[in-house]
Amino acid sequence: MTVFSKDAKIFKALCDIKRLTILDYLKSGEKCACVLIENMNIGQSALSYHMKILCDSGIVNARQEGKWTHYSLSKSGSEYASKRLLELTTPNTENQSNCCK
C-alpha cells in the first residue's frame, strides 16, 4: 500500500458527518456499539458500515466483548492522520519551480 492509499483511507473516514459525529462521541472514551446506535439513532448495519471505514483508516480501534464491539480512538492512528494532514498542506518552498519567472 502506498502512503497516498493510506492517506485516502484516512481522509475518506473524515469526510462524512456521521463518522465525524462518531469520532466526537469517542473523544470521551471507549463506547459500545449499542451506545453509538442509540445516541446516533441509526441501525446496526449503518453503524457497522461507518465503523469499518473508521477502523480501516486506523483512526479507531475495535475490540469484541461478548456479542458487542467496543470502539475507541487510536492514539497512533490519530497522530499519524494529523501528521499527514500537516505534511500535505505545508508548502515546501525549497522545491518550488522557477518556471515562468
Task: Please explain how this structure is put together.
- It is built from five helices and three strands.
- By secondary structure, it is an alpha+beta fold.
- Strand 2 and strand 3 form a beta hairpin.
- Helix 1 packs antiparallel against helix 4.
- The radius of gyration is 17 Å and the shape is elongated.
- The model has no long low-confidence stretch (mean pLDDT 94).
Question: In brief, what are we looking at here?
Answer:
The chain is α+β, with helices and mostly antiparallel strands and 101 residues long.
Compute the gyration radius: what is it? Answer: 17 Å
Question: Mind describing the biggest β-sheet?
Answer: 3 strands, antiparallel
Provide the spatial order of strands within the biggest beta sheet: 1-3-2
Taking pLDDT < 50 over at least 5 consecutive residues as the criterion, the unreliable ranges are none
Domain HTH arsR-type: 1-96
Protein name: Metalloregulator ArsR/SmtB family transcription factor
Organism: Enterocloster alcoholdehydrogenati
InterPro entries: ArsR-like_HTH (IPR011991), HTH_ArsR_DNA-bd_dom (IPR001845), HTH_MetalResp_TranReg (IPR051081), WH-like_DNA-bd_sf (IPR036388), WH_DNA-bd_sf (IPR036390)
